[in-house]
Design goal:
By secondary structure, the chain is α/β, with parallel strands linked by helices. The chain has one domain: Rossmann fold. The protein has seven helices and five strands. A five-stranded parallel beta sheet has the order 2-1-3-4-5, with helices on both faces. The two termini are 29 Å apart. The N terminus is likely disordered. The structure holds flavin mononucleotide. The site of flavin mononucleotide has 19 residues, from helix 3. Flavin mononucleotide binds next to helix 3.
Length: 185
């Protein structure tokens, strides 16, 4: 199942940014800019749902200089990204967090996350999950399981799932917290 390059070799440390289909995903370009400013080279892996209009894919590819990955490569294709030095998931949805904790690797994004902990690299998550969803017992168990695997969590973000996205007053999504977490010793 492994789909990472075994060679590394990037001059700068390589950061995987996994993007899920939450309303705040449109802000991921700011995370990429901040990561590059801190010396990371960035490759983006998005869930298939996130690729359907949740963020500006052209802007992301222009900044990273690499195609966004969302589907598995074919067996004959070279691995497009070097191995990661760190992985961040931002924003992380209820769906992806639960699948990751359960080991249900049905998208490249979740498969990458399932593998990341075993690589021994720092993994940080910025959940964007509304309070009603976050009260589901499966979600609480998923967080406990992932924390037990050493995954680093930012503060929960209530997020939104529809019209609330348009309303004012929602808190800022603290994108750079993900970078602080992976750089923490
Ligand atoms: C406009 C919009 C905003 C959404 N925001 C969120 C969100 O903040 N958090 C969340 O868990 N799901 C949110 N969803 C639902 C997810 O997109 C949905 O559960 C999807 O299956 C997640 O797929 P993924 O985890 O593979 O990215 C939103 C859906 C829409 C249409």
């Amino acid at each position: 199942m492994s789909d990472r390059a075994g060679t590394g070799g990037a001059a700068r440390p390589f950061l995987y940014v996994v993007v899920c289909a939450a309303g705040v995903a449109e802000g991921v370009v700011g995370l990429i800019d901040a990561a590059r400013g801190r010396g990371w080279e960035v490759g983006v892996i998005a869930t298939p749902v996130a690729m359907g209009g949740f963020f500006d894919t052209d802007a992301v590819e222009a900044r990273t200089g690499r195609p966004i990955r969302s589907a598995w490569r074919t067996p004959g294709e070279p691995r497009p990204f070097p191995a990661p030095d760190a992985v961040v998931v931002a924003p992380a949805t209820f769906n992806t967090i639960n699948k990751w904790a359960a080991g249900l690797a049905d998208t490249l994004a979740v498969a990458t996350l399932c593998e990341a902990s075993g690589l021994g690299v720092p993994v940080a998550v910025l959940p964007c999950v509304g309070e009603a969803l976050a009260s589901h017992p499966a979600y609480r168990e998923s967080l406990a399981r992932l924390r037990g695997m050493g995954v680093r969590f930012g503060d929960p973000h209530a997020g939104n799932t529809g019209d609330a996205a348009q309303s004012g007053g929602r808190p800022e999504f603290g994108w750079e917290r993900a970078l602080d977490l992976v750089q923490r010793r």
